[in-house]
Amino acid sequence: MKRFTLILTMLLTLIISACGNGEAGDADAEEDGREQIAVTTTFLYDMVNVLEEGVDGFAVELVIPAGEDPHVYEPTSSDLRTFNEADIIMYQGLDFEGRMVDVLEDGVAVAENLSNEDLETMEEEGEEVIDPHFWFDIDLYKVAMQNVMDILVENHPDGEAQYQENLDAYFSELEELDQYVSDRIEEIPDQSRIVVTPHDAFGYLAASYDIEVHAPQGFSTDSEVSNNQIQQTANLIVENDINAIFVETTTNPDRMQRLQEVVESEGGTVEVVSGGENALLSDSLAPEGETGDTYITMYRHNIDVIADHLQ
Ligand SMILES: [Zn+2]
Q: What residue ranges are annotated as transmembrane (predicted)?
């Protein structure tokens, strides 16, 4: 049924384009003289913007809006038009944009060539799959960023020196970020270093730093949380005396309320850390102008919220 809807949407888009609406964008791009890049996620949008500083070689369009969940996002007819008009389409891959696979056929998957040895696996409906949330491993993020730069240089060789300078400067900032994350995790007492979130987005945080993560839900944000998983996580919280669990901006907060109720029924207490300024940013950066609207501020925000509440 979903597939049918997608095909219908694509057909409609073709009809709309044929009627002339789609041509306005092309004309703009020609006037502008810059090639257009369509990127699926806020992470890629941030990477391209960091690299483009002082070059401005491309017009960059973000497809999945900040705050939307890329695991379940389905392209609109306007998104399909954006892809049609783009000279370059960049997406993350590793099945992160799981419902856009068909429309991303002509795109470049930025994370697809990350080494299998460096990638974590996770469980999805009883099967081991590659964990797509690589961005919480800063080293992998650097590799992905290098991939993005290579694509930009290939298509705009004049910008190479500036792109390289921007990349080097940014890598220094990422090293500072890495140190900051380590330091803040060190502040948390050993036995409290357990982060419970609604979905499995933080596996690479656990792989990179001295902290554990647990999510009562399987891989994707659209799977139903079974009572069994909730019960197991509640037991873990009570046994380890964990005093806070976290919500994410892209996942329904009700799940954590339910978990809190089960913890209380077991005689424990746990705070659900939520609210605009306190929700963790996992699968999307914040909308522009809000805390966490860049990769670095997102990571600092998350680690501050975690470290402040797990004391
Ligand atoms: Zn996710």
A: none
- Tell me: the pLDDT tens digits for 105-126? 999 999 988 988 899 998 877 7
CA of 200 to the centre of ligand 1 (A): 6
Beta strands in the chain (DSSP E): 35-39, 58-62, 88-91, 108-109, 121-124, 127-130, 194-196, 212-214, 244-246, 271-273
Helix (H, G, I), strand (E, B) or coil at 16: helix
Confidence of residue 228 (pLDDT cuts 50, 70, 90): confident
CA 80 – CA 186 distance, rounded (Å): 46
Q: Whole-number mean pLDDT of the chain?
A: 89
Task: Answer yes or no: is 256 within a domain.
Answer: yes
C-alpha 298 to ligand 1 mean position (Å): 15
Name residues with Cβ closer than 5 Å to ligand 1, which is an ion. 201, 283
Q: How far is the CA of 35 from the centre of ligand 1 (A)?
A: 30
Range of the domain at 292: 188-310
Question: Is residue 303 domain-resident?
Answer: yes
Q: How far is the CA of 201 from the centre of ligand 1 (A)?
A: 5
Say if 180 falls within a structural domain. Answer: no
Q: Say what the pLDDT of residue 251 is.
A: 84
Residue 219: per-residue pLDDT = 43
